[in-house]
Amino acid sequence: MTISISRRFKGKVRNDYLDLIMKFPLTSIRSDDDLEAAQDVMDQLIAKGDLSSGEELYLDALSDLVAAYEDDHHAIAPASDADMLRHLMEAKGVNQADLHRCTGIAKSTISEVLAGKKNFTRQLIAKLAEFFDVDKGVLAHNL
Asked: Best exposed site among 21, 36, 59, 121 by fewest CB in 10 Å?
């Protein structure tokens, strides 16, 4: 293992990376205590500002371990269509009338989506994605 590390990382990159490994080894996160410790290390690195290449490589690897644990143990459910539309409208500073006027979407359809009575359709997603300048995949999680 040391041979492959020394071939891949050289000089300061290697030294910075290995120094961090010695302080906080890159291993699977198995508990919320491990998660908290990993987040503390990440926070310290991020607060540092400019990172060396070795520090960036380490932070990327640790971030991947944190993300894998959070995906398994602290998954966040996707937003409802109503919540997503409400968020996009607030972010763009438009109301229902503005959205109707700019997209041609029926006022009743907008109201039903916001009330949670109607989900996005493919046609609605296409119009909303264009208007809000977002990828269609952002809106299509419930299809």
From this structure: 36
Q: What global pTM score does this model have?
A: 0.57
Give the SS3 label for residue 6: helix
Identity of residue 48: K
Per-residue pLDDT of the chain (143 residues; tens, 9 = 90+): 454 555 667 788 889 999 999 999 999 999 999 999 999 999 999 999 899 999 999 999 999 999 999 999 998 888 899 999 999 999 999 999 999 999 999 999 999 999 999 999 999 999 999 999 999 998 987 66
Q: Are 125 and 138 in contact (CB under 8 A)?
A: no
Q: CA–CA separation, 32 vs 24, rounded Å?
A: 16
Distance CA 46, CA 69 (A): 20
